[in-house]
Specification:
By secondary structure, the chain is α+β, with helices and mostly antiparallel strands. The chain is built from 6 helices and 10 strands. It has one domain. A 4-stranded antiparallel beta sheet has the order 1-10-3-8. A 4-stranded antiparallel beta sheet has the order 2-9-4-7. It has a two-stranded antiparallel sheet with strand order 5-6.
Length: 257
């Protein structure tokens, strides 16, 4: 957003949506103190993605032992649409949770609704508005004010969602609870489908699903280390299958004669 837009986040959304996008090179190009991760997949009804080894850089801990930095998360989905449903025109949604937790725990998969034998104790979603200072949310003066994006989407079914947060905005109490090292990090995505679509697919004997693309940028605001290299190494350590994104394609044509 332009620096002149001295408004609350909700007012900015109403007036200018998610702001003016940069060109593709600027969006995907990172300095050594930041990295952008892209996850593209499909979520079916009854399924979810729960990554308990999210590669948040362990070097981003300040001298007092707290995690710091900026996170920008953008989710774009291809929702199921039903014109006949009026206000419930958008029939599918994805919830995103990204945050810290204390330790992994074993879970009893014989219990109803428990699908993963490994769980996480003490989870806290850092994209939740409740952990941030209300005073910081009204800040118009700092350099991060034009970038801040923190909304409580609640039960709203929206095909595009964005969060941009700085851990400096945590309340002191929540900072002690959820950012004090040592911490592990997780990423969870869960698909939701309205009753109309679930019933329709049940009759058609199909499983509703929605494609999505999630873009996460992690930035070391203190510029202490090479975050790009560190996160890449963590991806390898945690056995993630990953590859670099090409932002420029050269096509060479040979003409005979």
């Amino acid at each position: 957003y332009p620096e002149e837009m001295r408004m609350t986040i909700a007012e900015k959304i109403d007036a200018a949506g998610f702001g003016m996008p940069s060109n593709i090179n600027d969006i995907l190009f990172n300095q050594p103190n930041e990295i952008t991760l892209i996850l593209q997949d499909n979520i079916e009804k009854g399924s979810f993605i729960d990554i308990l080894d999210f590669p948040f850089p362990q070097s981003m801990i300040d001298d007092e032992g707290y995690f710091y930095g900026e996170l920008t998360v953008t989710l774009v989905t291809s929702p199921i649409l039903e014109v006949s449903q009026g206000a419930e025109y958008c029939q599918s949604n994805i919830d995103v949770y990204l945050g810290s937790y204390d330790e992994k725990i074993e879970k009893d998969i014989t219990q109803p609704r428990v699908k993963n034998p490994i769980g996480a104790d003490g989870r806290q979603n850092v994209l939740a508005t409740s952990v941030y200072s209300k005073k910081a949310m009204k800040d118009f003066e700092t350099s991060f004010a034009s970038e801040r994006m923190l909304l409580s989407y609640g039960d709203k079914f929206q095909p595009v969602k964005k969060w941009s947060v700085n851990f400096d905005d945590f309340t002191p109490t929540n900072k002690d609870k959820f950012l004090k090292a040592p911490k592990n990090w997780y990423l969870k995505l869960e698909g939701l489908f309205r009753h109309f679509t679930e019933s329709k697919c049940e009759i058609q004997k199909t499983v509703p699903s929605q494609e999505f693309c999630l873009v996460i940028t992690i930035k070391d605001t203190k510029k202490r280390g090479n975050i790009y290299n560190e996160v890449t190494q963590l991806l390898n350590n945690f056995s993630f299958v990953h590859s670099n994104v090409k932002i420029r394609e050269e096509v060479r044509i040979r003409l005979n004669g």
